[in-house]
Amino acid sequence: MLYSELAVLNCNCKSYVLSAIIALILALEAHVPAYSFSTALVIVAISS
To answer: Structurally, how many domains does the chain consist of?
Structure first.
């Protein structure tokens, strides 16, 4: 939820690479890397 919103904001404001790095960090912090990171990748892919 919050992580997805942050990923969207970062994708709109930052570069693709920075967004991917931030999304990975958020996914690791959420302790569910597989789900969060894949979700973030989908968001980044749609927004780019």
So the answer is: 1
pTM of the model: 0.34
Q: Mark residue 34 as left, alpha or beta (left: phi above 0; alpha: psi -120 to 50; beta: remaining).
A: alpha
Strands (E), the chain: none
pLDDT digits (tens, 9 = 90+) for 22-47: 777 777 776 665 666 777 777 777 77
Tell me the two tokens of residue 48.
């780019």
- What amino acid occupies position 48? S
Quick one: tokens of 7? Answer: 């990923």
Amino acid at 28: L
Whole domain around residue 36: which residue ranges?
A: 2-47
Cβ neighbours, 10 Å, residue 41: 16
